[in-house]
Amino acid sequence: MVATPLSKLPRFDPKLIPVVGVDGHLPSIPPERLTPEGLRQRFLTPPVWQPEVRQEPKFEDRAPAPAAVLIPLIARPAGLSVLLTERTAHLSTHSGQVAFPGGKVDPGDVDVVAAALRETDEEVGLGAGFIEVIGQLPVYITGTQFVVTPVVALVREGFVLHPNADEVAHAFEVPLAFLMNPAHHRRHRFEWEGTSREWFSMPYAETLVDVSAGESSPSTALTVERFIWGATAGMLRNFYRFLSA
C-alpha cells in the first residue's frame, strides 16, 4: 500500500500539527566538534553509530532514484552556519519546503559528490572552488523514492549566491549550533486513515533587515520563521546522532 504524501493531504499544514515531544533531555554536542577541524577529524575517524531516520513511508509507486544533497557548512566569524533553501511553490516535489541544495544524480555525474556539487552550483550559484567536501552521511530514502546521499562540506567565505529563481525562492543560513542542539528538535505525530506519521521539525526565526528606504530612514527588521521539517530535519537529526555518538 502506497501512503499519501503529507503535503498532498487536504488542508495539511505541518506547522499546525501538535508537538508531542522536544528532545532537550538529549546530550549536547561538545563545542569543539562544531568547528571545521573538529568536523574533519570526526569524518576521518568516525564513531560507531546508527542513523535514527532512514526511510519515510512510501508515497509514490515508482522505482527508487539516486539523489544527493549538499550540507554546506559556511565558516563565519560567529561559527559555522548551514546554508538552506526554500523551494519555489510550483515545483512538482517538496514545493515550498526548506531543503538542502541538491537533486537527482544525472548520468553524467561521476558520483554522488559530483551530483551534489553540480546541483548546488545550479540552484544557488555556489561554485566548487569554495567547497571542501569532508564526508557523507548514510542514505535517506524519501517518500517519493529518492535515495538521497547527504554530502557534508565546509564552505569558505567570499562567495556570492545567485539563486535560480525557477527552483529557489529564498536562500538563508542557520547556525550549526542551533540545529545540533536537541532542545530545538521537536517531534510531531499525525494520524490519517489509520496510519500514524511521525517527523521532526526545527523551526528557526530568521531576522531580515530592510534597508530599501535608504540612508534617510532607519532600517527595519522583520522576523520570518523558516520551518525546517520532513526529510531535511531527518537528515539533520542523523547528523546530530553522528556528532553526539
Model regions low in confidence, pLDDT < 50 over at least 5 residues: 90-95
Number of domains: 1
Instruction: Write the element-wise H/E pattern from the N-terminal end onward.
Output: EHEEEEHEEEEHEEEEH
Give average pLDDT, whole number. 90
- Percent strand: 25-35%
Work out the helix count: 4
- Determine the CATH superfamily: Nucleoside Triphosphate Pyrophosphohydrolase
Gyration radius, rounded: 18 Å
Structural class: alpha+beta
Provide a descriptive summary of the structure in words:
- This protein is an alpha+beta fold.
- The chain has a single domain (28-187, 228-244), classed as Nucleoside Triphosphate Pyrophosphohydrolase (Alpha-Beta Complex).
- The chain has helices at residues 36-44, 112-124, 176-179, 230-244, and strands at 19-22, 65-76, 79-87, 98-99, 102-104, 131-136, 140-141, 146-155, 168-175, 186-192, 195-201, 204-210, 220-226.
- Strand 10 and strand 11 form a beta hairpin.
- Residues 90-95 have low confidence and may be disordered.
